[in-house]
């Protein structure tokens, strides 16, 4: 990439030709506020929060304006602050942004900016439109569109990352709102519950069913781990509350998933802390499962395999391997079947 | 209920890719019998075309001409935009309601008629107007409405050449010899249905001359020299725009913006209806100059007759080898296709227009990239207005110097001015750029109607500024209007007399913007709603003085921060109206202030 040099707030910065002002500014530690921009999706340029001053006169949205050699960028001045305040006030007046009732309280990009720009309570007189609240139709996500700022991240997350195209804007002007499918409820639509839209939502408009009443955002602690469901090995940040209960997952950017998850990784974590989960091997004796040691259990399985093989031949045994295993584990499974048992009866659940 | 076979038939005819969605849905609505796009039908369309359901839902929701609820065989759309409003649209609603016993959003008990409000229908010289399906009726009176509605009761819904304004394009041109007709010179003389008639009157000579005598750069240079500036409203120099198109063999497009939606404008409709080949020739010249091989004309969906006539002209031009491969024995190939709009003012903004052409919601795009870099389908595209393309053939034929012989120093040529409102004579006139408002009103409009006095005129459409008496002698060209803090826009002159209430007028304009905002960017989406709310407060006489400042502040924020020109527009009508009529706004802050105009609007639209 061809290198270009320009200044942000008087400091020299370098970036690649074709990169936007915002991309280069963020990389260089400049704090330009934004709401519709997200690095994982294509540019939108609709929230207008990232307006910066270019070459002393022009106001441009940093998220869409390509940086140019010799450009002079000012990220904030009096006029820009006024514009940003104005936009935030419009957003607050348009929706119902009461943090008391909101799942995103403490983890809301809108809230952060409202604090940063010292926005007072806005006039209540402006008309608000009642938009959709749906806490029930989907087992994975819930939505309260009165908290929506129509940034469009969800639309693009679904269309560009998951490729499901469940979300779209419909109607227009002040009546603009979201629809899933053909005016369906989200639970009735073709949503596969990957949760990408929730993960990218800057406010509490979209949230996970799992977080309901399970602690404040600032109480949650996170631990990174690898998803156990398949060989892709997605990296996940698991969030747990004060009591140690897992409440939600966010895809981690460093993994092969680059922050994305599927429904299993996103929501399939309740078994971990389920009381019914097996934590020791059990052997059925006289019709009753009894706790056993690993040595006991493995010896029993091995001896039964040998017995079956001797009695009915190696081809009476088959192995179906799991997609939850890694490639290496799957390799070992076929190796043991071929070399130890002596059969080619090997298959894998991902092939079904 | 449409069968799967019906739906398949339409999709097969139109093509299944997303860019044909407008046609598919319009066809389905037309054959549905009650002008409805049922959810089941849309679901089938999604299934067959593989277009995501949500995309179709978003598309249908964006374009106001489509509805998913049942309507009726005849949809009555009464125009509520500026010129019709001033000329009494509110009483037209009353008359229709009295006649049929229905309110907007309702169907008659016999299931024959369905009533809706709509924005400008482009017949502003015969305001007030309404459209029944695709037939536009103007000069409405209570008696006439009764007759019209009666006549439909024994008719079947039709779509085709017969549709369109009952007042023909040529009848909308003011009959006055003092005009300097260049664009309109053939209107009324040439038969719009016949290419032979166009050719007999000297048509297609310019493109032949260009192919014979000029290189593509020559054509661009001649257009540059002529000083032709865009006639859609922004006034960007056309030749310069053409020169931005990249050289090379990539697919390039020439797009004609015929989404004439600026309230008060009807010039493009007259050109399309009366001389469609002139536009085709202009586009051919642009294609030749820029190396584009495909042209599109995006016509608003309401202009049925213009669409029919353009399509017929295109077909004839193909037959006569004026469109197609290797034209006039050269290496130049060019063909033109029509795209239709669906009832969205914002699609007249060039990037929204291209999104709409691609079968998407008409959201404007951020710039860069500009259309010449990445336009329709991401390929280099040149977008100009109908009047701009129509001006090109004469420039090539007679030369830049000839073209510059009329007009002002910086804005050459003639301009089509659309006169509407309270004038003794309304219609289209062609005069040199820089004609004054006084001349337009006194000479061509024959003065203010019924001997009343002039109060103000809005010039440039709803996005234009209000002119008081002090600006009557301002030359109306692109440059000098900007210097005076107003705009020529698309050439609209909407004249208002002393009976017009400035508050009511501004409320009408702002309600237009609130209705037409696309809703993508925050300042415009929320700003237009809040402006509408504030303007309504004055009309309701519940406003306080500081609401004036609030309006200006919000419009100012929209001007600074909006993504496209729509959101940047309301500031001009607001500040110019307040410049002259602040006192009137203050009067409206008094709850006991009497204003029949505002009362009538509130009763009609906000009850």
Based on the model shown, name its key terms.
heterodimer; A: 352 residues; alpha+beta; Ubiquitin-like (UB roll); Alpha-Beta Plaits; N-terminal domain of TfIIb; 5-stranded mixed beta sheet; 3-stranded antiparallel beta sheet; 8 helices; 17 strands; B: 607 residues; alpha/beta; Glutaredoxin; Rossmann fold; 43% helix; globular
Report what the structure shows.
The complex is a heterodimer of chains A (352) and B (607). The two termini of chain A are 44 Å apart. Chain A has 8 helices and 17 strands. Chain A has 4 domains: 3-76, Ubiquitin-like (UB roll) (Roll); 102-107 and 121-212, 2-Layer Sandwich (Alpha-Beta Plaits); 216-277, Single Sheet (N-terminal domain of TfIIb); 283-351, no CATH class. Chain A is 24% helix and 20% strand. Chain B is an alpha/beta fold and 607 residues long. Chain B has 5 domains: 4-62, no CATH class; 74-167, 3-Layer(aba) Sandwich (Glutaredoxin), CATH 3.40.30.10; 195-404, NADH-ubiquinone oxidoreductase 51kDa subunit (Rossmann fold), CATH 3.40.50.11540; 415-497, Ubiquitin-like (UB roll); 502-605, Up-down Bundle (de novo design (two linked rop proteins)). In chain B, the strands form 4 sheets. A 5-stranded mixed beta sheet of chain B has the order 2-1-3-4-5. In chain B, strands 11-10-16-13-14 form a 5-stranded mixed beta sheet, with helices on both faces. Chain B has a 4-stranded parallel beta sheet with strand order 8-7-6-9, sandwiched between helices. At the A-B interface, helix 2 and strand 8 of A face helix 3, helix 4, helix 20, helix 21 and helix 22 of B.
Task: Give unreliable regions of chain A as ranges.
Answer: none
Q: Proportion of β residues of chain B? A: 5-15%
Number of helices of chain A: 8
Radius of gyration of chain B, in angstroms, nearest whole number: 23 Å
Q: Which structural class best describes the helix and strand composition of chain A?
A: alpha+beta
CATH class of the largest domain in chain A: Alpha Beta
Number of domains of chain B: 5
Helix content of chain B: 40-55%
Largest sheet of chain B: 5 strands, mixed
Strand content of chain A: 15-25%
């Amino acid at each position: 990439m061809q290198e270009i040099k320009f200044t942000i707030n008087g400091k020299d910065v370098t970036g690649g030709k074709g990169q936007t002002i915002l991309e280069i500014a963020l990389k260089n530690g400049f704090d330009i506020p934004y709401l519709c921009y997200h690095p994982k999706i294509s540019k939108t340029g609709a929230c207008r929060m990232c307006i910066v001053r270019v070459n002393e006169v022009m106001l441009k949205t940093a998220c869409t304006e390509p940086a140019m050699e010799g450009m002079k960028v000012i990220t904030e001045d009096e006029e820009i602050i006024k514009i940003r305040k104005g936009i935030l006030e419009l957003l607050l007046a348009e929706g119902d942004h009461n943090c008391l009732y909101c799942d995103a309280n403490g983890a809301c990009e809108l809230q952060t900016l409202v604090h940063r720009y010292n926005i007072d309570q806005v006039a209540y007189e402006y008309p608000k439109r009642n938009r959709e609240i749906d806490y029930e139709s989907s087992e994975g996500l819930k939505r309260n569109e009165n908290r929506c700022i129509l940034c469009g991240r969800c639309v693009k997350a679904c269309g560009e990352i998951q490729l499901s195209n469940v979300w779209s804007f419909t109607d227009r002007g002040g009546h603009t709102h979201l629809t899933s499918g053909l005016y369906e409820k989200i639970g009735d639509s073709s949503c596969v519950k990957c949760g990408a839209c929730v993960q990218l939502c800057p406010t509490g408009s979209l949230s996970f069913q799992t977080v309901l009443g399970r602690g404040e955002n600032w109480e949650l602690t996170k631990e990174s781990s690898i998803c156990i469901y398949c060989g892709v090995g997605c990296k996940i940040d698991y969030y747990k509350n004060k009591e140690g209960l897992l409440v939600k997952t966010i895809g981690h950017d460093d993994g092969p998933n680059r922050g994305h998850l599927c429904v299993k990784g996103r929501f399939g974590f309740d078994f971990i802390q389920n009381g019914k989960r097996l934590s020791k091997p059990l052997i059925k004796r006289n019709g009753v499962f009894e706790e056993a040691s690993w040595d006991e259990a493995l010896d029993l399985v091995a001896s039964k395999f040998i017995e079956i093989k001797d009695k009915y031949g190696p081809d009476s045994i088959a192995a179906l391997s799991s997609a939850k295993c890694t490639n290496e584990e799957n390799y070992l499974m076929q190796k043991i079947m071929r070399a130890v048992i002596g059969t080619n009866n090997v298959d894998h659940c991902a092939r079904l | 209920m449409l069968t799967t076979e019906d739906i398949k038939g339409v999709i097969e005819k139109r093509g299944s890719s997303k860019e044909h969605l407008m046609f598919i849905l319009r066809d389905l609505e037309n054959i549905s019998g009650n002008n409805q796009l049922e959810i089941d039908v849309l679901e089938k369309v999604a299934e067959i075309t593989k277009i995501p359901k949500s995309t179709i839902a978003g598309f249908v929701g964006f374009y106001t001409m489509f509805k998913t609820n049942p309507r009726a065989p005849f949809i009555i759309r009464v125009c509520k935009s500026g010129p019709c409003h001033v000329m009494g649209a509110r009483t037209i609603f009353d008359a229709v309601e009295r006649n049929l016993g229905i309110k907007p959003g309702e169907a008659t008990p016999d299931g024959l008629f369905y009533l809706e409000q709509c924005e400008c229908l482009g017949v502003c010289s015969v305001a007030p107007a309404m459209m029944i399906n695709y037939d536009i009726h103007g000069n409405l009176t209570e008696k006439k409405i009764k007759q019209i509605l009666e006549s439909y009761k024994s008719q079947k819904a039709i779509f085709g050449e017969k549709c369109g304004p009952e007042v023909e394009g040529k009848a909308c041109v003011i009959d006055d010899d003092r005009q300097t007709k260049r664009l309109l010179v053939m209107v009324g003389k040439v038969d719009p249905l016949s290419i032979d008639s166009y050719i007999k009157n000297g048509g297609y000579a310019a493109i032949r001359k260009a192919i014979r005598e000029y290189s593509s750069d020559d054509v661009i240079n001649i257009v540059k020299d002529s000083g032709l500036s865009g006639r859609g409203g922004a006034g960007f120099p056309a030749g310069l725009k053409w020169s931005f198109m990249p050289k090379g063999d990539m697919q390039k497009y020439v797009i004609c913006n015929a989404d004439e939606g600026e309230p008060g404008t009807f010039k493009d409709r007259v050109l399309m209806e009366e001389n469609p080949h002139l536009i085709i020739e202009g586009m051919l010249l642009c294609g030749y100059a820029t190396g584009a091989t495909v042209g599109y004309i995006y016509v608003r969906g309401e202009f049925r007759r213009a669409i029919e006539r353009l399509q017929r002209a295109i077909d004839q031009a193909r037959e006569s080898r004026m469109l197609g491969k290797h034209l006039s024995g050269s290496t130049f190939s060019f063909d033109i296709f029509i795209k239709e709009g669906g009832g969205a003012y914002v699609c007249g903004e060039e990037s929204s227009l291209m999104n709409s052409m691609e079968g998407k919601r008409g959201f404007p795009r951020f710039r860069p990239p500009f259309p010449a870099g990445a336009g329709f389908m991401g390929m280099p595209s040149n977008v100009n207005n109908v009047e701009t393309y129509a001006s090109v053939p004469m420039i090539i034929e007679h030369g830049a110097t000839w073209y510059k012989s009329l007009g002002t120093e910086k804005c050459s040529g003639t301009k089509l001015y659309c006169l509407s409102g309270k004038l003794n004579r309304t219609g289209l006139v062609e005069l040199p750029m820089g004609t004054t408002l006084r001349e337009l009103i006194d000479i061509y409009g024959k003065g203010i109607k019924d001997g009343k006095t002039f109060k103000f005129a809005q010039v440039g459409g709803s996005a234009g500024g209000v002119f008081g008496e002090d600006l009557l002698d301002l030359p109306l060209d692109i440059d000098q209007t900007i210097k005076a803090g107003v705009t020529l826009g698309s050439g609209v002159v909407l004249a208002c007399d002393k009976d017009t209430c400035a508050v009511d007028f501004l409320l009408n304009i702002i309600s237009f913007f609130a209705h037409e905002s696309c809703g993508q960017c925050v300042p415009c989406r929320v700003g237009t709603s809040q402006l509408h709310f504030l303007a309504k407060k004055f009309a309701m006489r519940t406003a306080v003085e500081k609401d004036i400042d609030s309006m200006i502040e919000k419009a100012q924020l929209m001007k600074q921060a909006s993504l496209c020109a729509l959101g940047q527009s309301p500031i001009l009508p607001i500040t110019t109206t307040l410049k002259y009529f602040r006192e009137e706004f203050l009067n409206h802050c008094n709850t006991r202030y009497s204003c029949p105009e505002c009362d009538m609007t509130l009763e009609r639209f906000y009850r």
